[in-house]
From TrEMBL:
Residues 62-158 form the FtsX extracellular domain. Part of the ABC transporter FtsEX involved in cellular division. It is found in: Cell inner membrane; Cell membrane. It comes from the Bacteria. The keyword Transmembrane applies. InterPro entries: ABC3_permease_C, FtsX, FtsX_ECD. Signal peptide: none annotated. This is Cell division protein FtsX.
Length: 302
């Protein structure tokens, strides 16, 4: 056991020494990997900050049916009663908003007073607001009902009030998939960078490795310092990436604060949880070690 620990201690110290021997090259490699890693870290920060906001948005299961402009109030009332009876099992409430009521609501807003005063007549249609029951398949049912009502006589258009929330959820899903693809690209960058670094180190020490083999050094003993070098590169680059992402969050939060306040919400970007960052760093270190093993095996074959 002591021998095993001594071998690993020796390999670790050799890896550190090799990183110190060429500081500029080591720092360049660390910066390349760190900058690449910082991008998905920032993306994850934005995604994690946006998800609670989306969950807190009230998604009332309502749709609004706008009647054609030439429809009378009696026709709108008859249509609302017919819809209420036909879809009684799906609807929690049916409410008719006449064009006169809609106009009065707009006129109560000072910003619309001048514009409405310049119109010769009421341009608003009669509207019927339908409230649906909350069910797991609400989105599917709402879409189906909207398409059905759109084909009815006298209906001009149907508006789903939660459409923009669904679009926002779709955008977040797109970002999530993009982050997974980006992380796969980051893995390729880590492997390529560590592979080339270890390859150069192995080629420079090829004669030293050959002599070590001649005096009885095992393949594991030869590879071990390079494996530690790859793992250390991954860990140091991950720590540097977190630092760069944290620095970038400061100006981003300042810009986001004014934007969020204009919408009346509180939104702050922060790094993902420490456990997630640690898991990601360990995965990057494992990738670095695997890339180093692959590189030293290919570069020291005789």
């Amino acid at each position: 056991m002591r021998t095993w620990l001594r071998h690993h201690q020796y390999a670790f110290l050799v890896a550190l020494r090799r990183l110190k021997v060429q500081p500029f090259s080591s720092l360049s490699n660390l910066l390349v990997i760190a900058l690449t890693l910082a991008v998905p870290v920032l993306g994850a920060s934005i995604l994690l900050a946006a998800q609670p906001v989306v969950r807190e948005i009230p998604t009332s299961p309502e749709m609004t049916v706008f009647m054609k402009q030439n429809s009378t109030l009696e026709q709108a009332q008859a249509f609302s009663q017919a819809v209420g009876k036909e879809f009684q099992a799906e609807l929690a409430n049916v409410r008719l908003v006449s064009k006169e009521q809609a106009l009065k609501q707009l006129q109560s807003n000072p910003s619309w007073t001048d514009a409405l005063g310049a119109l010769p007549s009421n341009p608003l249609p009669h509207a019927i607001v339908l409230t649906l029951h909350e069910t797991p398949d609400l989105v599917t049912r709402a879409d189906s009902l909207a398409k059905t009502l759109q084909t009815r006589d006298g209906v001009d258009s149907v508006l789903l009030d939660s459409e923009w929330v669904q679009r926002l959820a779709a955008i977040l899903s797109f970002i999530r998939i993009g982050l997974w693809i980006l992380m796969a690209g980051v893995g390729v960058v880590v492997i390529a960078t560590v592979f080339n670094t270890v390859r150069l180190q192995a080629l420079n020490q090829r004669e030293e490795i050959a002599v070590a083999r001649l005096v009885g050094a095992t393949e594991a003993f030869v590879r071990r310092p390079f494996l530690y070098m790859g793992a250390l590169t991954g860990l140091l680059a991950s720590a540097l990436a977190c630092g760069l992402a944290l620095l970038a969050l400061t100006p981003l939060n300042k810009a986001l604060s004014s934007l969020a306040q204009s919408y009346g919400v509180q939104l702050t970007l922060s790094l993902p949880e420490f456990s997630l960052l640690l898991t990601a760093a360990i995965l990057v270190a494992i990738l670095g070690a695997l890339a180093a093993r692959w590189s030293v095996t290919r570069s020291t074959q005789y």
